[in-house]
Structure formats: C-alpha cells, structure tokens
C-alpha cells in the first residue's frame, strides 16, 4: 500500500511537538514527510528540511507558498500537519483547507475564539478534512474506557474527576517551549488552561460522552510576573446531572505529566493515569477491583483495535499519538473512496471549538469570581 | 506507670467506631476501660459491658448517671470516650465536661452548630480537657508532613488537593452504620460532607497550617431517596492566596477509604494516601522524587515520635488512632501535673468548631449555587 | 470476659521484639502482663518492670525463679512470652513447659538443633501448649491465601517464589539488635537465614501447604568480617513436583522489610507483599488480575476472621502479630475447657522444628557447594 | 539525511516479531524497508510484500536469492533483519554476512550451539556488522542503570536478582507463536530458557558488567506433554564474588511480560521493571529511595541519549527496540565512514554467543541435578 504524503508547518529544529508528530506519522508506516514550511526563519527552515530528507524544492518559505504549490502538484501532499504555536494555527489551517488539503492540527484549536471560528468556517465551507491532535484519546485503554461506558459497564455516570498536573513552570522559566506558552499573544488568554486544561477536558468528554452544561473556575497565576494562568480549579456540571472536578496545574511540584481520569457510575468505576497508560483499573460495584491491561485479558474490541504489541510490552505516548495519524490516514483514504475502518474516533473541528469554549468559559468564570458559566 | 481509667458512652455490640476506640486505647497500654454507658438499650448495654470486662456496677443505664457516679468515685474514670452518633455527642459531652471529666469525642463535633457551640461553651466554662478524634492526624507521616511544611521544606504553599472517597453508599443501603449516617436527624444536615468531608478538611488544615478564607461547594445526593449529600465538590481559598480543591464521596465506585492529600509549594511537593500510610512521596523542585517511609531514612523528629515499629513493619489505622489516645493520656497526666511530652498535636474543641463551620459553609454555599462562602 | 495473665522473659528496656509482643498481646484485650524476668541485668529488669506496671514482687531475677514462683501461685500466669535472643530460648522454654505454663516463643525456635529438639521433647513430654510467633502468618490476607489454595482456587501449585530482603546490615553495624544477630554464639550458625530466611520459608510452607523435599543453598557473608551469612539464595523442591526459589538478604540496599510471596498454580496465581499487607493480587488464568483487599470485596472467611477494621482502614504488622496472641489466648482457654474457635492456625513446635531443619539444611548445602540436601 | 535501506527475512503476515522490527526501524526515520524474503510460503511472501509496499521485484522466494540479488544491486539493502524462528537464523545470517550485508538478527542467536558458532565464524571471517536485538537493552533507564553502575553509584555489586515471568504458556497452547517456541527442533533445546531466560541473563550482564563464572539451574516442563522447559530457576556466581538469582517462567499465572531487575551493591541499590519502564528506583544506602524517571530529574547522559519525549510522556517497548535500530543505523553509517555517535551499546555477536552458552549451561546443569556448571 503506497504511503500518503505529509507536509508540515512549523516543527523546525528545536521544536518539541513537531518531532513528536513526525515520529507519530512514521510508526504505522502510513505517511512519508515530503514537504514543509518548517520555520519562519529561512535558514532554520532549510537546515531542518535537509535533516529530515525533504527535497529543497519542497521546503517553503511560507505556508502560503506551500499551500499553493502543493495544491498545484500532481504528487502534492495528502495532508498537512500544523505544529506551530497556537496563534499561528488559523493562518495555515485556513490556507490549506481552502487549497483542499486536509489538515492535522495541534491543539488547542487557536489562540482566540475568533480565529477558531474562522477555521471552523473554512472547514465547513470547504468540506475538507480537519483532525485535531488531542493525542491522549489515542491510548488503547482510553478507547476501551469509552467503549465500556458506552455499553453500560459503569451504569449511569455520576462523578468525573480529571486532572492534568505538571511542575515544569513552577518557577520563572525561559526557553523555546516556555516562552510562547506563557505569552498571551501567542498562547491565547489561557495559559495552563489552554495548554493542558483542554487536554483534560477533552479526555473527560471523549471518554464519558457527557456534555458539559456549565462550569465554575478559579484560575491563578502563582509565579510572580506570569501573565497567564498556571493553576486551574474547575467544578463541572454535566447535562443529565453528573458532576465533575478538573484540576490543571503547571506548578504542582512533584508531577511530570500527570494526566489522570477517574469516573464513577451507578454500577462501576474506572481509573487511568497517562504516565503508566497500559493499565486501567475497573471495579464493578461490590466486586474486587480489576487491573485491565492494554491488550491483556479483558481487553475490549476498541481497546484492541489500536494496539501494536501484546500485553506487557508497553506502548506509550508516541503510539497513542500514532493512532491519531493512522486514523487521519484512514480518513484521507476514505475521502478518496476507501472504506472507513471501524472505530475511527479522531477529534475533529467540533472538539476543537468545544475546547475553545472551555477555555473561554474558564477565563470568564474566573474573572467573574468563579460564577457558573455556560459552555 | 499506672494505667488511666477510661469510660465509654456508646460503642455497644455491633458498633464500629466504639471497638476502634477501645483498641486504640489499649495499644500503648495507657488506658483501661472500667466504666460505660454502652447502649441506650439496657440489655445490650449490660451484655456489652460483661463482654468487655466492665464490672456490672460501672455499667450505667445513661450517660447522666455515669457522669454523676464516676465523678463521685475516688477511683472514677480519668476520661470518657464518646462514640455515639453525631446527634448524641452534645448531651454526654456537656455532662462529663461539667462533671470535670475529660472528654475524648468522635468527630464531627455534633449534628448541629448550636450543639457544637454548647459543647465549646461548656469546655470553655469548665476548663476541662476536650479531645476530638480526627484520628488521621495521628499517622506518623502526617506528623512529618506538618513538620516539613512548618520548617519550610515545601516553601510557600500554593495548591492543596485533598480527597476522601468511598463507595459503600453507592446504592441504597441499610444497616447500623448506614442508617444514622444518612438520617439528617442523627448525622446532621451534612451527610458525606460531615462524615468524611470534615476529615479531609481537617487533615489539609492540620498539615498545611493554612486558614481557609472561603469556599464554593457543590453537593449532591446521587442515590435516589437519599436525604443527605453523598458527593461533595469544593473549591477552597486560603488566607494568603493558596488555593485548594476537596472531593469527598461515598458513591465513588472503586474506592474503599481513599483519603489522599497532595500539597505543592514554591520549593517542593508531597503526596500521601491513607490506604498505604507508611509511604509519602516528597519532591524538591528539580530533584528526583523521594519515597519517605515511616521510621525510614529521612524520617523527621515528628515522624518518628509516634512510631512503634521500624520502617517496613507497617503501622495502620489503629496505630494512628492510638496516637490520639496516647496524647490524650499525656494531656490528662499533664493536667495532673506531669510534664507534657513534646509534639502533642491532638485535635481539640477549636478543630471541632472549625469542622462544623466547614460543614455549614459547604451546605450554605451549595444551596446558594456554590457561591463563595466565608468560613 | 476476664483477661489472661501473661509473663515475659526478656524484652527489657531497649529491646525491639519484646515491645512488639506486648503491644500485640494488648490489641485484642485478651492478655494483661503481670510478671516478668525482663533482663539478665537486675537493675534493668526492675526498671523495665516498673515502667510496664508489673508489681515488684513479680519481677524476677531469673526465668527459673519465675517459672517456679508463677507455677506456685493461684493467680499465676496463663502463659509466658519468650523474647530473648535465640540462644536463650531453650532454657526458659523448657523451664516453663515443665512447670506446666504455656509458652509463646519468638522465632527461630533456637540457636542450635540440639536445643530445639530438647524444647520439642519437653513440649511432647509435658503436653503443654507451645506457640511460635511466626507472626507473618497472622496477616488476614495470608490466611485468605492459604484458604484459597486449600480450596483449589489456584489449582495445583507449580512455582513458589518467596523473598525476604532488608538492607539494615549492609554495612558493619553495632547496636543491641545487630550484635546478637551477627554473633553465631547467640543467633546460631545461621545469620540472615535464621533471622528472616525462616520467616520466608515458614510463610511459603504455611500458605501453600507444600512439604519441602530438598533444597540447594548458596549463602554468603558479604560484609567484611561478618561471621554469619547475610545473603541467602535457595532453590527448593517440594514433594509432588512443585519448585521454589527463596531469597533472603540483609544487604539488599533499598529494601526495608521486603517479605514477598508469589505463587502460581495450574489455574491461578497470587502475589502479596508484607509492606502493604492489605492488598493481594489474584489472577485466574486468562482473566484480569484482581486486587483483593483485606476485608474488602472478595474476602474469604479466613480472610475476614482476623480483621478488626473495614476495608481501606489499613491493619499492619502489630495487628498480624496480635492475631497470634489472640489465637494463643483461644488455645489457652481451650486447654481449660472452652470451645476452640474456627480457624486457629498459629505456628507450633512442629513449625519450629521445621524451621530449624531449614536452617541446618541451608547451611549444610551451602558448605557442600549448594548440593541438594534433604530437609 | 537519506534513509538506509532495509531488507527482512521472515516476518510475513501473522508474525509477531517481524512487525515489531518494522515499527522499530521506522520510528527514528533511519530505515526504509525495500526488500524481503518474508515467508517460506510464496503466496504469503508476495501478499506480505505488497502490503508492506515492497516492490514485487524485491520480494524474494528465498533468502539465498535475496542475499545474492541485493548484494549485486547498486541500490542494494544496507542491512537485513532476520526475524525467523531460531532454527532459521544461521542460514540467512551466514548468507548475508558472506554477501557483505550487515545483519540485524533476533535473539537467541540460534537453536544450536553449532549454528551459533558458525554464525560467529562468518561474522569474524567477513568482518561484516552483526547486531543482536536484545531489545530490552535499548530502554533509556537501562542505559542509565548501566552508566550508574559503571561510574560507581552502587559501589561494588553484591547481589543481582533478575526475573522474566509470563503466563501465556500456562496451558497447552497452539498457534503460530506457541508452536515453534515449544518445538525443540525449531526453538532449540531450551524453551523458556532460550526464549526469555536469555533476555533476563543478557539484561543482568549488560547492566552490571559482571561476568558469570558458573550457574546451577533447575528446569521444569510443567505443562503435560511439553517438550521444552517452561520454568527456569538459576543461581548465579559471578567473577569477583557477586551472586545472583534468575527466574524465568512461561507458566507464572498472573504475569504478562514481567522482566524485572534488582541490583544491590555496597553503596546503593536499583530496581527496574519492564512493564512500567519509565521509572527506576535508586537508593543510596541510608538515604530515602529515589524515583528516577526517564528524562526526568536525575537522568544521566546515557539515560537521556536514547529518549525522544520529555519525562512523563511514556516511551515503551517499541521505542526501546527502535534504539537498537537507530544504533544499527549509526554502525552501518560508521562502517561507511561516518563518525560513531557516543554511547552505542547494541548487543553483538559476542552477546549472542554468551546467550547460547547460558542456554547450554542451564540445560547441562539441570540434567546434572543442578550441578554448578561453568559458562
């Protein structure tokens, strides 16, 4: 089966998430990177392209050039990955959507609601595929949790507790990663809430299928001089009566990348933590807790679908991310006429808009003394 | 050293917490149980007394009789343990305080704020010792955590996350333990928030030393027909700017007795969970996380003070509870002239009142759509 | 119910295991300590007795005096606890057995096989009760594991892996605890193998019910100048074909008191570790692993029998030890005519002899280049 | 940088390890698969090749044809991956070595010592690169453990405890994976000892740098009718006086892929388990245990070298395997003149021979009643 051709905007030397996208795209052998506008700095763009084996003729000075040129080629890219800081999502996303090139975009959707809506409008107007890399939804046990809830293993959901806690911004920090994430002009008005709060919110929504009605949020910027939030406390009310709590923090000393989800329903409860993602516990009320392992005994169809190795051979962050890319490939092929495999659940433009509404609601609520705010 | 004489109100056959208090009182060999008004049912009271080796003459039909008779004896009890349901705390507490007999009372202080204040007034008027068994403060690593924060190991506290989650009331339940705890006439207006929310709140306050300024609470009664809350979400604002979240639940399927405390400051963070209480993790920002064990390498003076066995020989719930009794003994002996050993930190009447204000504030806030409510 | 009267030989100030025995004897309210020969140093014996509330007239200068005097009293002790170093077990044990006073003796049975056999002979000749405090058998989940295997939950046992690893003797150490344990004249020819290897061997035998046929052992004394072993590797062959490995060490840096048992049969497997003793995992072949908690869902009759608190309220080392004392009380009362409660499984003189044969076989095998040695 | 060209022998549809090798080769973007003799079944070979995007002209009917044809092409493969069952390692390995094409071969080296030595001879005679995929050495924390020991963090090593326990062969099983692994004609005389025992032995040797002097092994075939061992107990003696235990099992019910390594030295101890490979504990004697995370605080140069994501973003089995492929690429490029990057530690032919000697010694020892056998 021929590989699909991938382009990339952003992700030049020194970038973190661009390298992750590239590995994720390679793991299942569905994509090859052939074009890029890898940096706004022309020298870095060229050097990065060479290092990545991209032909000089397909290393572009700007995403506008790239969208135009690739759309015109017979062998043009099948999709573009946008891995720039948040404030540079809308420009390329809209350009490629309008050029009819599917977009795989990092989260959150954008730095402003206006830009986000413009992207959504472009996706709608053009009918071009848009995938948002809320990569944590790609973990097999997250797929299994979603399926278990859907088929009623937990009964009616009552309580959702989600947290995403880190400590890398516990002190004033500089560096490529920290700089733009703490600059409202580039990250958007939300700091921690946009960078990782959206992941937590997306994950809870994805797994439970619950719709959030309103929230009450208390945001802080604990580090002196910080211009965006670095700690986020949220109470959630879901349609139908379930309740939730969400904690996101970049100053929670002792935590590296602590994304953790706990859900309790009338009949059962589950718990999963990203740092050891091959394990999930499940308790049927009144019975002993079970340890469900990825691809192990008790794996559900959805849990098995995205796994590459047997139980006990741990998969990690990159494999979960790769599942997003594998599904993006399936969707691109489907758009060209191939049948769609079962179980494709990749986050899309609607999830992106929902994430933006979450950020906005948190900020609005917090500014209004944590008043309940509709999503 | 002669043992102190203990009386007990409540705790007859079939009771849970009475038996716990008795074991706790025995562990360090400081107390012997010699008198009781163990049940409002005379037959059960007599049978329970006989089983416990209490002489028939000191098995009383009522706490009033007991307070009077014991106060009159030369060899009267040195303290009374009150282990009745919440609504029967005030009566005996006030009776014994007025009789000059020190009181060791289970938590929460009472079922109503009025009763709680009456107890406090009696304690103040009589100057008699009052100990509240927030037993989780007795764990050695909790003592160590408090000391570490006091001496600055964590820097300035920013974020507190405390939870106490169970699942035993996830369905409609009957039985001696469940009945009174879900009956507002006996438990007070708070259900889960009073029964275990207060433990969580007390623990967070005890360890951090932070004063809570206000809170926003969202309480639910998920089980159909339940008349008190069974799930509690709270956001906390502490004096000085720290923030907190508190989750208490009796419907969180998959949890037995999940009291867990996480604290992050400018310099460090700790994490402790009651179900494996001999272990606490501590991270100095930028260094590897450490596993601190009870009585192991890294134990602090306060952490060592209340331990009975070497590291790796686990102590549990009963030993933590026993420390409260050992300290009550020290306080009783101190009231008689003995020097007070270092490090006695047993919760007292003020902690009891604070717990009642916490319950009231949670209920008031929740009724007011989770509005911020002063404590 | 009147308490039984306990005497103690050894356990004066500064001793570790004596204090443990005393707490264990108190927890269930079955025993009161009334007599002792607490130290071979008369001043320490007297001071210890006073501290423990033993009347001066029942604080004896020697165990011989004590056995004689207590046997002569109408209110003499119901049993004696022997908590001296290994080489001082036989003397008092035989004296009390001959005086008709039941003996509760710390492990291993003795420092030499000759002494051990003499104790056994005395127990046999006198018909007096002898209890050996292999306390780890008192943990509720160990009782449950034994019951599960007995009733066939694991099928036929194939493989046993037991280890007991510590690090407190990783360097040359002095102090009351270390001194006698590393002196062959006092501990016996076995160091680590006698002190903790026997615990591991006893636990594996107790839980599985398997009889050891032969073993091959490789013992080392890693610390320069050490006169007894401090690291023990053993391969085990059980009657019927099962196989085992045993590792005991006092130089395994990073381990406090790591007693851990894993057993696999044709149908299932279990795993338990003493440092968090309220949890055991159980896997039925082909099904998800279950987490069985003490007194939680899935608790078996034997698992429930010795528990004092609900699931999630951890019990520890002292409670497991207390179960040995509670059962010793039941056996003493039974010898006086009371019915014996179900499920009394306290290790006895036979277990003591078996432990001695294990030590001897390990030493003999190791001296013979780890040749297979019959037990 | 142009990708290297990879060929594959074995790994057609339905194979496990072939797919793993392919993903591993893709992750770091160093290899592209261009040729194969994927199956001895021509139809399956062709179908597999098509699925993998291998041109029909480079899908060969036999490895002999492939070696010859690829060696003759200007754009011939830069290396071949051999992923056949053990008894089909020697044929292709020798053919490609003789053709001057570097070999990346799955472990163990072969099914017989004779074949293994023939491979080694061919490697020596031709001077062609040979890499053995003991993939577990590719985990970053394993690299770090090796470096820590090398630089003396643990002092002098005393005790090594390594185990690799699974349960997938606990009952009689059929299927592509089980069949050849339990057939001595295909797997070699060793079953479990060859399949996973060698991994455990390799890992312990790799990390500690210790040379094994002799071993005593007790092997069993527990499943009725099984013709090779399925449970392996080994005691190890290392040069210089350190001792070890090794347990490998495919019938240890409750274990998926439990490769676990514990090492204690005079100054420190470490513990690592493959199923959660991003975490290792390290204890300096007398200090609190530290949790070292992959790429987290405390990461050493070697620990950082092979990581792709920040701490808390778990890497897994495939990434560890990919490091072997990345290093094979570095070695291939180095053979062509490129400088060799620091820290390349890929297992080679010597490790393969050592593994074969380990298997032989275990079998010989076990047949000789576990007599000590030189390696």
TrEMBL record, chains A, B, C, D:
NADP among keywords: no
Stored SUPFAM superfamilies: Glyceraldehyde-3-phosphate dehydrogenase-like, C-terminal domain, NAD(P)-binding Rossmann-fold domains
UniProt keyword rRNA processing present: no
Keywords associated with the record: Oxidoreductase
Gene Ontology MF term list: glucose-fructose oxidoreductase activity; nucleotide binding
Gene name linked to the record: gfo_1
Protein name in the entry: Glucose--fructose oxidoreductase
The Gfo/Idh/MocA-like oxidoreductase N-terminal domain, residue ranges: 5-131
E.C. number(s) listed in UniProt: 1.1.99.28
Domain GFO/IDH/MocA-like oxidoreductase: 142-271
Gene3D superfamilies: Dihydrodipicolinate Reductase, domain 2 (3.30.360.10), NAD(P)-binding Rossmann-like Domain (3.40.50.720)
EC top class named in words: oxidoreductase
PANTHER family registered for this protein in UniProt: CONSERVED EXPRESSED OXIDOREDUCTASE (EUROFUNG), OXIDOREDUCTASE
Species assigned in the record: Pseudoprimorskyibacter insulae
